[in-house]
Amino acid sequence: TFKDRVILADLPHLVLEAMAIAAWVVGAREGIVYLRHEYAAEREALQSALDEATRLGVVGRGALDGRDFHVRLFVSPGGYILGEETALLEALEDRRGEPRLKPPFPTTHGLRGCPTVINNVETLAAVPVILERGAEWWRRQGRNGAAGLKFIAVSGDVARPGVHCVPMGTTVAELIERCGGMAGGVALAGFMPGGVSSNFLPAARADVPMDFAALQRAGSMLGSGALIVVGAGRDLLALAVNALRFFRNESCGKCVPCRVGTHQAVTLLDEALAGRPAAGLPARLAELGATLGQTSICGLGQVALQPVLSAMAQFPDQVATRLVPGKR
């Protein structure tokens, strides 16, 4: 995600130091940084930091109290699904990137069948800071009952999209203000707080803190820390269908519910966007979403219909009515 991309470009040494700490704790001898293939500049920054860490003895031969710890960079062959941890492991083992059935989990059966610690870039980058300044200091950085700091990528209808490191618990409204307010001075219509897989929330919830528990109570999730801001005048149904279309395109196809269900949902909704909604479409979409949520192997299929279903729930006048024949 964009916030991890910024961390790799600007703070790669924190990630490598955290990997060395983790390896020292669990007794690992090998570390792997898995990079999207599009991230060429970030790869250069990380390689430069890795070369420096090797010269300083942070990684390499005898780095961990005399024990070797080597780090290598692995460039992803591409695919959104490879963000799922077991699909990532499959790619590392030179197989097609598809999620594995769980259990077993990577902590006991990971890369090449060995116990494997997998963490995202932001989690790793926080480790050296917490160890240096202490857990109490870290907790005090949060606001509104939350703890710590959080990198948030803000995109959409804001004046200055970007990545911000803010206290965990900063509200959506405050983040929009940090980005110069709404682009063109339009009103806020709604937002997706955790990327395209998180549920829409209306403008009235802009006071919700960007925190795991608070967003769960509000009916969405923090997810990947990617706030998508939607201004008044946008076609919310088209936006939601576009997110669903993305999930359909990025499905690995391993499980039937996701492979077939996302395709069927896009077909039905494309007809609705053209002004030809099928009879009983809202109920069919809800049933399809429940089926995918209960039977898909990984999170992609489980949340694929949530952008549409949450848009229907939060914006019935703008979205749900367009899915009923003769109501538009």
Q: What is the SS-derived class?
A: alpha/beta
Q: List segments where confidence is low: pLDDT < 50 over at least 5 consecutive residues.
A: none
What is the beta-strand fraction? 5-15%
Q: Count of DSSP E strands?
A: 8
Task: Set down the secondary structure blueprint.
Blueprint: H1 2-10, H2 12-26, E1 30-35, H3 40-56, E2 60-64, E3 67-75, H4 85-92, H5 121-133, H6 135-140, E4 149-156, E5 162-167, H7 172-178, E6 188-192, E7 201-202, H8 212-218, E8 226-231, H9 236-250, H10 256-273, H11 281-295, H12 299-303, H13 306-314
Parallel strand pairs: 1-3, 4-8
Antiparallel strand pairs: 2-3, 4-5, 6-7, 6-8
Could you explain how this protein is built, in words?
With 328 residues, the protein is of the alpha/beta class. 44% of the residues lie in helices and 14% in strands. The chain is built from 13 helices and 8 strands. Strand 2 and strand 3 form a beta hairpin. Helix 1 packs across helix 3, helix 9 packs antiparallel against helix 10 and helix 10 packs antiparallel against helix 11. The mean pLDDT is 95.
Give keywords:
328 residues; alpha/beta; 5-stranded mixed beta sheet; 3-stranded mixed beta sheet; 13 helices; 14% strand
Gist of the model:
This protein has 328 residues and is α/β, with parallel strands linked by helices.
